[in-house]
Amino acid sequence: MPSRLSDAFRAHPVHLYPKHPDFNSLQELPDSYAWGLLDHELPNSSSAQSFGSSDNSVPVIDLTDPNALALIGHACKTWGVFQVTNHGISNNLLDDVESTARSLFSLPVHQKLKAARSPDGVSGYGHARISSFFPKLMWSEGYTIVGSPFEQFRQLWPQDHGKFCDIIEEYEREMKKLAVRLMWLMLGSLGISKEDVKWAGPKADFKDASGALQLNSYPACPDPNRAMGLAAHTDSTLLTILHQNNTSGLQVHREGTGWVTVPPLPSALIINVGDLLHILSNGSYPSVLHRAVVNRTQHRLSVAYLYGPPASEEISPFSKLLGPSQPPLYRPVTWSEYLGTKAKHFNMALSSVRLCSPQNGGILVAANDHKRLQAWPEN
Ligand SMILES: C=C1C[C@]23C[C@@]1(O)CC[C@H]2[C@@]12CCC[C@@](C)(C(=O)O1)[C@H]2[C@@H]3C(=O)O
Ligand SMILES: O=C(O)CCC(=O)C(=O)O
Ligand SMILES: [Fe+2]
Q1: Which residue among 74, 81, 112, 215 is buried most deeply as judged by most CB within 10 Å?
Q2: Catalytic annotation present for 129
Q3: Cβ proximity of 105 and 218 under 8 Å
Q4: ipTM
Q5: 304 CA to centre of ligand 2 in angstroms
Q6: Three-class DSSP category at 80
Q7: Which of 306, 296, 274, 168 is nearest to 229 (CA)?
Q8: What pLDDT, on the 0 to 100 scale, is given for residue 7?
Q9: pTM of the model
């Protein structure tokens, strides 16, 4: 069984389309990128709301608010996503990481391909792994970093990789600290304390936790209504911390409302509940289904920090949350195994680790999961 994050995809290599176009040279949307009409830019579209009553917009939480723990608990239960302000990450660092991503994606295609992700690897340049589940290509490029970016950055920028490595390494350190703080707020809001999480380590600092950085680029698109930046998915994480530049594009799916745009707020970071927190909370903090759409005039960038437990630690619902009427809904799974499951089953990954209920005669998908699956627009 794989034990490091970088081994997670050994058993599930993806051979994605080898051709990477120079997006800027395309005046028309090639058929291979045409998904059919999306409704995100249609006039009067009710399915992509961004502003409205506060009930219909993603919660914004000030981390210095004395009530932050309760606000976060409510946001996790009802949205699976929230924005945070006063999070302690400096604007300088956010600007630096954004310009690192901009410099990277502006390199010529042949240069970026020198750091191409291998079919069974985690790090490097390429399409999102989930691309293999769709007949059409996504209007985006990605670059994944696990651990030190040094070796690959040296290929990309033979002369001046040093400054970019420093920025990424500092960003990884800062994200890790923020993730620990958010973890304790999210777990605390579930009534989980330090003694309940042995894998957080003796100092409760999640020292052995793992993380990946995903840089995403969504160039301006000649036909945005028919293109998809990043298809609807949930993250296979405990939580994800997302920085987006000043261009909107992230949408989250909410039952009963549909797609809701998460507006860029200066200095705010977006926090997604991932599938592993969904499992730990026994489904009470559902992972959020989200996607990225594109636009005609602006280049959008985002940087996601995908945070998970130690790669070989078994994750299962906290026993404190279980009882005679709350049986565990998910079987134990390691992050590494779960990433492999996602690579194989994509949107069925969470229900594939759901425990069978004997009353259902072994039928795997229970009522709630069923509703979630129906929300996936591609189903
Ligand atoms: C740790 C990881 C989560 C991720 C796969 C990865 O190895 C690094 C990239 C992550 C990402 C980002 C875009 C969406 C996503 C579904 C994908 O294809 O690559 C996620 C993966 C995930 O959360 O499952
Ligand atoms: O670009 C975005 O807003 C979404 C990125 C994302 O979902 C991811 O990297 O997992
Ligand atoms: Fe995501």
Answers
A1: 81
A2: no
A3: no
A4: 0.99
A5: 6
A6: coil
A7: 296
A8: 78
A9: 0.93
